[in-house]
Each structure stands twice: as structure tokens, then as C-alpha cells.
Amino acid sequence: MTRSKQRAVVSAVCLAFGLQALPLYASSVTIALNGGFGSVSVPARSVEELRWEGVVPQQYDYSCGAAAVATLLTYHYGRPTTEAEVFEWMIQAGDVEQIKELGFSMLDMKQYLDAQGLQTDGFRVQLDDLARIGIPAITLINTGGYRHFVVIKGIDRGDVLVGDPAVGTVAVPKAHFESIWSGTVLGARAYSELAKTNFNHERDWRIRPSAPIGSAINRTDMASMLLQLPAINELGR
């Protein structure tokens, strides 16, 4: 597959989710804060970087399935796995030319995950039912004509938290997600308690931070605040 086609896949995903194309990795920066009592340097990360903290990025336009499997295992089942490991296993077990033309199938992914002991099955399910079950799952979406595998990492009343190998973690409005997904998920029966602890994880929802209402209010009591003030003979030093 050509690089231009790969870029087209990423662009289609971004369009489907209403995103701008993002770099696969973003560097953290250090911000110096200067105040009346000195300065401090703190690390800061961009939203783009946070998006990739819980997702394994795909390297090829037909490898989203391998990256989705690696994402599921690494960030939801505590089994660090690379896209290359999954890719090589599924290539060896499948039809290479068909995979290059159509990409990996859900059956390819099921066979790999079952080999890891996850006991997976495909289910037709509603988003509300998946939210009640409370485990992550791989699903297929249609992005501008491209079939694309992603991981459902969480669901709340308004959004679906999607781990997308092409654009990272994104919060997609439920109504919009329902218009592009297949309604079929690949979920694991084994290790369900572990999976539940990593579904709707606060780490992943950081890409959609809540409004910091009240965070600028100093809650320190007056006595503690007075202890932090400089003595009269220290002023101006």
C-alpha cells in the first residue's frame, strides 16, 4: 500500500471524528513559572501527546487491526504488546495477499487473542449494554468508505471514548459514533475483573478534561497562609 493511501485513511478517520490530523507523537515541554517568591519549572504535555498515552499507533494502512489488538492487550489487560508482534503472528496465520488488500479481519484478531488466553467472542451489542458490562472491546467503524478497527475504551452518557490507532484516544459523541460503527464488538470473557478496572479509566478521559471550576480558589486556611508569608525584615530581599 502507498503512503498516499495511508494518509487518506488517517484523513478519513480525522474527518469522521471531526479532528485535525495530528502527529503520532508530540514532545512534552517544560514551562517556567515565575512568582513573587521564586520560580519553578514544571513539565507540561499537550493534548496530542495525551491522546497517544493509551494507544498503540498503526504503522501501515492495513495494520489498524494489529494495533487495536496491541492497544487492548497493553492498556486494558496489562500485557505490553507491540503492533509488530501481533502483525507478524496474524500474517503468518492468515492470507498475506488478502490481508494486504482488505486488512486483518475480526477472525484474525480473535484467533490471536484466544491464543493469549482471552477467550474472545464477537457480539452484536448496543452501546448502553456495553457500558453496563463495562469491559473494553474492539469494533469496526466505517470512515468515509474505509473499514477501520478501533478500541472502545469507555462510555459515558454523552461520549464514547475511542482508542484509534490512526489518531489516538478521542471522545466521540455517542450519536455520531452510532452512525459510523458496525454494532459488532470483539470482547474477551477471561480476565473480566482486570478489564473492568481499565474501562472508563481516568487516565484515558484526560483527553477531555473537565472544566477547572473553583480550582483557582485558594482553599488554604488563614493561619497556614500567614505562616507562609515572609517576615517584615525579609521583605524586599
In short:
The chain is of the alpha+beta class. The protein has one domain (3-205): Cysteine proteinases (Cathepsin B, Chain A), CATH 3.90.70.10. It contains eleven helices and eight strands.
How would you sum up this structure, described in words?
By secondary structure, this protein is of the alpha+beta class. The protein has one domain (3-205): Cysteine proteinases (Cathepsin B, Chain A), CATH 3.90.70.10. It is built from 11 helices and 8 strands. A hairpin with a 2-residue loop joins strand 4 (137-143) and strand 5. Helix 3 (64-76) packs across helix 4 and helix 4 (83-93) crosses helix 6. It is globular and about 40 Å long. The model is unreliable at 1-12, 20-31 and 211-226 (pLDDT under 50).
N→C terminal distance: 66 Å
As for the CATH topology, it is: Cathepsin B, Chain A
CATH class: Alpha Beta
The CATH superfamily is identified as Cysteine proteinases
The residue ranges in which pLDDT falls below 50 over 5 or more consecutive positions are 1-12, 20-31, 211-226
Q: Structural class, please?
A: alpha+beta
Give the helix level as a range of percent.
Answer: 25-40%
Beta strand %: 15-25%
GO molecular function, one term: ATP binding
InterPro entries: Peptidase_C39
Signal peptide: 1-26
Keywords: Signal
